[in-house]
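Write out this protein's structure.
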Amino acid sequence: MTKIRMFVCAMLVAVAGCAVGEEEMVGSVEVPLTAVSDGVTYRLTEGAVLALQAPGFYDEVSLDGDQTVQRINLPPGEYQARLLYIGAELSQWPLARTAGGQTEDVWGTLVTPMPATLTIVRAEVTEFTLEFQVPRAKNVTFGRGHLDVSVAFEEVDATGAQIQTTGSYDHPAQVTVGASLPPAAVAQLPANGDTNVGLGIGLVLTGPWQQQSLGSVCAPAGWASHGWIQAGVGDLIVESAVAPESSISVCIYARDTDTLVILSATRFGAAMTDSFQGLGGSNLIFSTILLFELPAGIFDGETLDVEALADGHIAHGEVLMRAAVMEGEVFYDASFSGDQAFIKLLPRL
């Protein structure tokens, strides 16, 4: 995965204007709302505003319009400028990225110190730079009139990413239910032969990719979100992935005909959820494993193509879920599979 630094430069130009009852010099602030490179457009999303404050003056101007540049008239003087999103200053900014007619949300980190001091002087141009680090982009420079705008992208190692999965697993489920699993839990879980199992999991990578063998790489991860159709499936995901002591990883294996991606979450300890609270003892093991068969070449033993992962894939997927006593009785063991599983990597900083 890569990071990029996005620079948005706004120019403040002094022009003539009129106040009530007397002539007064004012300045204009032109702020670019989009950056375009090789057919890819970036823009701030709805809720972004530029807040400008000076003694006796305060205003907020929306930066999420359809136009490419936002112009604001101001009296000369010194201002404190802040970029806000729904009234708050953020470290991670939602941005819209449009390419090939498709728009997706990406995240950028605002690294320009806030508030920024701006001085507008008659007949002079003041440069104001908003610097973002955002995942995945290319070098681009653009400008308009007196607006000095440059956008520069530098590829650097990414510090994180989120992997999002969803799926309807409609092949007949293969399920084994132990005699000691409480009836209330049995009723909440998919049964053998079920063809309507749906679930999704979001994981955040918490560390760098590390090569584990000539044909595999892995990264540690943490739970971010999950969804389900059957309540028992949701509870088993919670048992496996949500607790701080859960062990979670994402691994990618290069194979001759495809790339295998495995998301694995395991926890040892007592049950926490309604479906499994009837299981006694603290020596239990809960696991949830998702496997996705993606096109070959995403990892070739040397290079991991994160751009291919970020494109998103609909693929054959399999889910393995298990609740058992460590080295003992198995309460629930299941395998669900289907050909409409979706997986996508979302670069994050």
